[in-house]
Queue: 2 jobs
Job 1
Amino acid sequence: MHSNILEKNIPFWLDKHLDFLNEFSLLYKTRPIKNNKGGMLFTHMFYFYLILKNLKPELIIESGVYKGQSTWLIENTLPNSKIISIDIDLNKREYISKKSEYRSLDFKYNEFKNLPNNTLVFFDDHVNHIERIKQSNFFGIKHIILEDNYPTSEGDFQTLKQISNSLNFNHKPGFLSLIKTYYQFTNIIIKKIFLSKYNSDIDLNNINQRIRDAFYNKETSRYLNDLFETYYEFPPLINNNHNNKTCKKPILQETPENILEFSNELLDYNFITYIKLK
Ligand SMILES: C[S@@+](CC[C@H](N)C(=O)[O-])C[C@H]1O[C@@H](n2cnc3c(N)ncnc32)[C@H](O)[C@@H]1O
């Protein structure tokens, strides 16, 4: 099942995984949110740190803030960079950065003017990866990080890796979630009937993100291959909960002493991927 068809042109710094492990673990000990279940844990935070340290983007756009752990990481790794933090529900924040510019409109509806060439966009919002790549390309953003790039249906949305395994994501929302979606959709129709000025686009986009079925054909992975200068999926740091066939070999045989306290978090691995567009 494991497909690497898109992996290419890996910059030398991406493979130097362990150079930053110690300094990262010292920073990670000071993180503001100790229980970040549902958000980023040690391995993803470490690889994000590695990318930030090497690329040093002047602007980082993050989509998917949740409690705010990734915002804290960006702010503390690159204190001189600008940050735009997007989440359609900013109420879950526990760490609020004084530096970041928060926005609640979906990435695709934003205006991004005068973007620096090395702008990095970080997607951790469970929105279709293919759409996010197309939108980044539209904005002229070359550096992209994709969280949760699962190879099979174990994620809850269409990922890039699924496309490279010829898998169209078929979402199975729970019964209550479907009823809520039905209620929201009915509301849209009623507003369309009675409110002549009502524009349903954002609400319909929300509906689309509640039922996340996706359809692509075989040409899609070819199109993406042509668009990518680099595709690199980070390996797990250590053995984890995934089937070995679906992910790379871990880079560590044993957990080093200095990160032993994060052993539980190390089990969590989600195929975090870095892409550079041409
Ligand atoms: C996995 S969490 C993000 C974790 C976070 N990066 C961290 O540091 O732990 C996913 C977040 O994406 C948000 N989200 C869902 N749809 C979104 C969208 N269309 N745009 C931006 N954020 C979205 C959710 O509200 C949720 O807070």
Note: The two ends are 27 Å apart (CA to CA).
Job 2
Amino acid sequence: MEHEDYYAMQEKYIAPVYGSRGLTIVKGEGVYLYDSEGKKYIDCFSNIGVNILGHNVKEINEAVYSQMQTLTNLHGSFTNDKRSLCAKKLIEHAPGKLSKVFFCNSGTESIEAAIKFSKLATGKQEIIAAKMGYHGKTLGALSLTKTLKKYNEPYEPLLEHVKHFSYNDAGSLKEIISENTAAVVLEPIQGESGIRVPDMDFFVKVKEICENNGSLLVIDEVQSGMGRTGKIFAIEHFNVDPDILCSAKGIASGIPMGATLITEEVSSKLFNGCHTNTFGGNPMACAASIAVFDTIKKKNLLKNAQEVGDYFISELKKFDSPLIREIRGMGLMIAIDLKTKSTKFAKDLQDNGLIVIPTGSTVLRFLPPIIFSKENVDEAMEIVKKVIK
Ligand SMILES: Cc1ncc(COP(=O)(O)O)c(C=O)c1O
């Protein structure tokens, strides 16, 4: 069967909630994807950051396959070797005083847990997030998300007691925060709104404002975490300790998993049944996540993300096209902001063998796997130069 056949089946049987990229992808290998006709694409998409180690990764495959043959799922009321080891691994790599893990299956679920835990820990109800921030689409997380109106408006009213301030403007947070604020929820680098890297002192100011109001700082590392920016968690670049940290996407490099990391102080306010999740912390996902951490270390991938990311950004900056407004990014989280709409260029790049993510109206977002090499950058740059003249 060909792309058209699979597409027709998709149209018939799958809920119409995604725009179509016009390709049937059937295989992935390293930093490459292959379509149903055998055409090869450089993957600067990684399923929006999920396949952090690329595709068909020996270490992940072995860990998952071996765990599948042992035990796939186990409810949280029983102890499991892989779950305990995975939690220990996460905490060993977590910044500041984060000391315990709540396991779930996705980014939006990790945010739901963070919202509930913040309310429990502080006894307050109000949550503040940033304009142009993205935290997921379940109703709680969606109340914090503020990117496209079409995401929120049909479902309003959403959560009560939610306010938004301008990202990278601590002064505007100070104006709206109060002693009723349970938490301020922020991405270290805004991803969905086009890779917005804040000033280096932004988070230090935010943390101080939170402390002055008895509010928690929740950091959403769903897209920026797991080595993408050259540190396991991007917030490490900004010298602040979060009270809660949300992770997902790359945490198990393709196996569904989410995690909400909390401090001892937050943990002390939780109780049996306050929030649970049937699949959360299943041994298969935990085995994959342990393999992700071990592989990042074994292959020195934090350094790679930093060095190859710097190289990618500098090559993009050297490329002087009148169509480009700005190049932004940190590590392998990179954006080309165009002076014109980006959708057509994303399509042209794809037709030429490079998959990126059109974001907002003018941005092309690059989230390649962190195994990306300088040679891969050169290969991608050749296509970029050809398409964005
Ligand atoms: C920063 C951030 N938070 C939360 C989410 C939601 O994650 P998921 O789609 O796994 O629910 C995303 C997804 O793009 C994200 O980028």
Note: The radius of gyration is 21 Å.
